[in-house]
Amino acid sequence: MMKSMWNLVLTILILCALCSSSNAQKKHNYYDGPYISVKGDDIKLQWIANGKVKDSTVHKNAATTFKNHRLPTIDLSNLDFKKDAFIRYDSVDQFVALSDIHGQYDLFIKLIKAQKVIDENNNWIYGDGHLVIVGDIFDRGKKVIETLWFLFFLEKQAEANGGKVHVLLGNHELMVLHNDVRYIDPKYRYTSGAFKTPYNEFFSQETVLGSWLRSKNICTSINDIAFVHGGFSKKVLEKENSLKILNQTFKDNLLDTEPEQNEEDGLLSLLFFDNGPLWYRGYADPSGFNLENANEILNLLNVRSIVVGHTSMPRIVSLHNNKILLIDSSIKFGKTGEVLVYRDSTFYRGQLSGDLILAEDKTNEDSSSPFQYIYNVGDKDLVIKIITDLDELIENKEYEPYQPAQLIAYHNSEFNRSWDIRLRARGNMRKKICHLPPLKIDFKKNTLDYLGFQGGDKLKVVLPCNDTRNYQQGLYKEYLVYKLYEQIDSLALRTKLIDLVFEDNGKAKYEFTGFFIETEEEYQERNDLTILEKGIITSGGIERSNLLKFAFFQYMIMNNDWSFYNRHNVEFIKCKNYKVPLVVPYDFDYAGIVNQDYAMPTDNLGMKHLREANFRCKDVTIEEMKSIVELYNSKKDALLKTVENANYLDKRNKSQFLSDITRFYKKINDEGKWKKKFLNK
Length: 681
Ligand code: ZN
Prior knowledge:
alpha+beta, 7-stranded mixed beta barrel, 27 strands, disordered N terminus, binds zinc ion
């Protein structure tokens, strides 16, 4: 039976009478905590409310409930907990497992609610079922403390109902305990500064959460299914294959101190670094880990399956008939995710909708392609490294032959995944003019299937023309134009900035930012439309309001580098709801607003300057003009805001964009002028 916290009389209102407020952080209007430690008979509380430092000490006998509308409610009379012993559990009818919450408390709650682990009021309703958190509650997100306190109390509720919550430690738990705070959300940094306390001290042995975390295992076993954050490498298992000893070794030696890296043969350093159970990523390597390897590991551990997190996937991935289950379904991005559900001796992927999909079932409409995955990652979250023979690429770029390469994706400098791919140059002018051409990347379909990706197996990437600051800005400007068109037309092609490293013979040769652009195939599928490859389409044949959107945009960005007749830098598309074709622009590197060094005015239009604005649309009526001006006026704030938020642009380029757009708005709102200029041409 769970005591209701509401029955307790003394609330934080009384605690607050004892509060001292010092060191107010007025700049940051945020909430954090509570951080609680128990010393003798005193309970010491620290928290941040509305950016202000708060602390208070209460006697155990007087302690009731900590309540603050934006912070977790804590039953202060219930802060004791049982230490987790290691037990191999069996005959468990059902469990739900997930990993890598990384502070995404709200999404986490939604996911376990959908699987009826908790009810509407977040109370345990899973009976004697088990909930397994496979590491990495800490870092990245903003609701780490909420997640920890929630699990602290849920564990007691589960226990009282014959169920069990397993909180297994991940590498990010260890990082925070070791005061490696590279990945904490800035708000936790402010808290640390405001209390003048190193962040790890909020989780010291004396604190409730700190000692609770130190009582946790790194691995467990339920019905002969092992759970661990990273994975068990063969190297580790050959030295030590007892789950019990592995847990004890972490508890005794590794939670507070880092082993010396140089004792290479020692168990401690083996457990702590790349091959250690909280860091290992070997299972997610499509070319380096096969069924034989899996069987070997399972035999060494004497289990039938292993469930791991740590390596982010677009969804839960089952390998080798559920022998290995990769369950980090990218909850950390806070958008979507899945949980592993085990019931009736079967593994399922539990969806946010509550639906279950057989874990081995690879068909899933929700699964993403590499491009969709890239598109959804947070800005600056991903680095892509490409290793290939760069001399060969540059030498042959005109002929566009494919050549072998390796692609490695990193999240926040952690190694993530690696693929053998092939790539080639593409693009018309750029491959001639630029040192590095735009690229097309081709994955082997089976290496994508292996990791749960689905859909397009190609990527298109645009690189800065050359490795200079100026060209990097040029690329940013072109990318920004794509983002501006997204504001105008929902049918715009999608793009995403990504940091890239090009490596040749082990040496990093280029490091810059490029952008990925959706392929035609994926664009068609996403929008449920067809790109028209053949036939002559003139401006007269295109849906009028779409044509005007397009022509006005090209006018705004001073782009003349397009032609319907040659299908140059335009896609004609056929949508279900329209009888006539629509048009979508791409490739903006010759636009006046982008103003690339290599761009020249278009000869056949008789242009003298690149930055000439030409309105290339015929027979526009006054009514059409009025309605398109109205549409653009309604988008003005959004366009200017998109530019304001483009922090990758330097000051000079940003203000040039702003003044170009502002000038465009002046012109289109001067009725007298446009009547003369645009109408009945
Ligand atoms: Zn991890």
